[in-house]
Amino acid sequence: MAASTDFLNCYDKEQVRHMEETCILVDEQDNVVGADSKKNCHLITPEHNGKLHRAFSVFLFDSQNRLLLQQRAAEKITFPNYFTNTCCSHPLSVPSELEEADQIGAKRAAIRKLEHELGITPEQISVQNLKFLTRILYKAPSDNKWIEHELDYIFIVKADVNLKPNPNEVKSTRYVTPQELDLLFKTSESENILLTPWFKLIYNSFLKDWWNNLENTNSLSKDNKIHNMIN
Hints:
By secondary structure, the protein is α+β, with helices and mostly antiparallel strands. The protein has one domain: Alpha-Beta Complex (Nucleoside Triphosphate Pyrophosphohydrolase). It has 7 helices and 10 strands. The strands form 3 sheets. The protein has a 5-stranded mixed beta sheet with strand order 6-3-8-7-10, covered by helices on one side. It has a 3-stranded antiparallel beta sheet with strand order 5-4-9. The chain has a two-stranded antiparallel sheet with strand order 1-2. A hairpin with a 5-residue loop joins β7 and β8. The longest helix has 15 residues. The protein is globular and about 50 Å long. The N and C termini lie far apart (about 35 Å).
């Protein structure tokens, strides 16, 4: 235990506290196979490059069809200072977030984290507002110590919201049009803009089609396939 504590001493104390949350371990077919701490799920060890666990990614669009991005706080242990989609995190291994019918557990986790990270209250967005679209399986290292290995549920929602970002979680926010996001991706390397790997995968594979159908989000079909994006 002492070695573990020493290992985390260089990180933000609040972020270290969140590393003790319990994630849901799954296999590649999204069957629950156990639970483990967020720390153990993301740690690179001689035995494993992260443990596969459930996650979610929310894409929030306003009434002008602009996508809300966040820049992850410098205090984050994985992918600090990276720009990403609106909200990304994990359902916890608790009864309310383990529930699978209509993806309700992952939706509850998304509502919890939208408030925690961005100050978007459940009165502004509820589980009924979140539309599930698909799942992706991916693996991406943050550095030589930490990695994401996730089965990620993708949700979209269209709403105008009041933001009150948590500075320990979110460094900045911005709304972008499709053209502005394209430019962000095109210039990211030359301007040293960091973009999370899961955001890149979703941008390259799905996002443009979803964006083109925002006037009627109900027209977007639910895809029960798990898209394996591990190279």
